[in-house]
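Please, structure for the following, as C-alpha cells.
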Amino acid sequence: MATLNLSITGTEWVGSQPTLWDEALWEVSTRLSISDQLAGDERSGAAIIEKFDLTKKAGQTVTFTVVDPLIGEPVSGRTTLEGNEEDTNTTTVSVTVTHYRHGTATDELSQVIDIFGRQWEAKAATMIGDWFARRKDDDWLNQTLNTDTIQTLYAGNATSRANIQPGAYLLPNELRRLAMAAERRGAEPIKTFKTIKSTFPMYCALMSEVDYYNLVNDNNFRQDVRLAEVRGGDNPAIAGRINMYQGLLILRQSSVIAGTGFNGSYLRPEARLRTALTAAATTISIGPATQKTGVDYGKYFSQTGSAQLLLVDSEIISYTGAAATDPSNTGWATVSRAAGGSVAATHAAAALITQNNLGKVMVFGKNVTMRAWALRPRRKHQERDYEFEQGIAIQWIYGLVSKQWSDSTVANAVVMETYSTNPSTV
C-alpha cells in the first residue's frame, strides 16, 4: 500500500496557496541577500543583470546582450557621415541554467510542530528564504572570485598570496589603490559624480566583517569620516555604520551563521576544529561536535593548488587543495604541520581555522554578473506516514557567469587579498 500522501486541503495550512508562499519566500530572500540588492534587468545598469526566461529548461542557455560604449572618431567638415557611422557593437553572454532543490522536514515527535502548529509552513518559508538569500550570495561570490578569473591585487604590495605579510590590513590607502585598479581596468562605475571641472566614478566595495573592522578602526579612516560628516550622534564614526568612503559604497558580509557551527564566506574562509588536534595529527576534522548531514563545512577554503595554508592559533598548516576531497565536507584528509617556520602544537576543539588569515575585498561596478532564471523558487510539499512526517522544499533553475574582457578576466570587478586577522580570541 502506498505510504505517500500528497493531498492537502485549502484550510490545512497557513499560506497554502503556492503563489502566496512562493512570493513570501522570494520577499524574504530578496530582502536578506546582498546580491539581490545589487540586481536589476538588462536596462538597469545594475551590478548583477537578471533575466527571466521561463521557456528554458535545465541545461539550456539564456542569452544576455550588453551594449558596448562608442569609441570611434567623428567626421569633420563636409565629410559624409552616412556610411561612416560607428557600429553599435554588443557583447553576448550565454548562461547555462541548472536545476536545484533544497528543503527541510520534521515529524510529530519533534517539538517544531508543537511550537508552530499550523504556522509551520510559514516558518519554513522564512527559514528557507534566509537560507536561499545566503545561497544566492555564495553562488555569486564563488562564480566571480573562484570560477571565473578576476584581476587580483595583494595588500602591502605583496606579489602573491604567499607573500602577504602580517599587518597587511585593509587600510584607506589600500582601498583607494583597489578603486584605482578598478578604474584603470575600465570597470563601469555604478554612478559618476560630476563637479565643475572633473568627473569621479563611484564603485561598490564588498568585504567581510573582519576587513570592515580593520578598516573602520584605522585612525586615518575614522578621522576622515569625522571631518566629512556633521557632528552628533548620526555621524557614521559614532553610529558605527560607515557605508560610504571616497566614492566607494561599502558593503559588509558576515562570516558567521549564529548557532550552527558553520563559519566562513568566500570573502574570509574559516571553520572550527570539531575535535582537539594533537601535535602529530595529519588529519583535521571541522564543524560542530554533532555534524549535520549534507553540510559542507569546508566549502569556503581553496580546493586548488599546492601549498595552501591554514592557521590554527599560531601554527601554520599546509595542504594541497583537491576539489571535493581536500577539504571535504568535514575536513582535511592530509595536512603538513609546522609550516612557515611555525611550531606544531596541540589545539583545542572549537579552535578557529582560517586560510592563514586570508581576506578578500572586491571592488566592482555595474554589469559584473549575468544571472539567468528559468524557474523562480517554487514550493514543494510532502507528507508521509499519514502526515506523521512533513517536508517543505523549493526548486529553482538558474545560472550565473561574469561579463569578461577579451583577456577572459572579469570585466567590471577587481579583488584585493588582505591579511585579515581575527580581532579577538573568539
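The mean pLDDT is 86. The longest helix spans residues 120-147.
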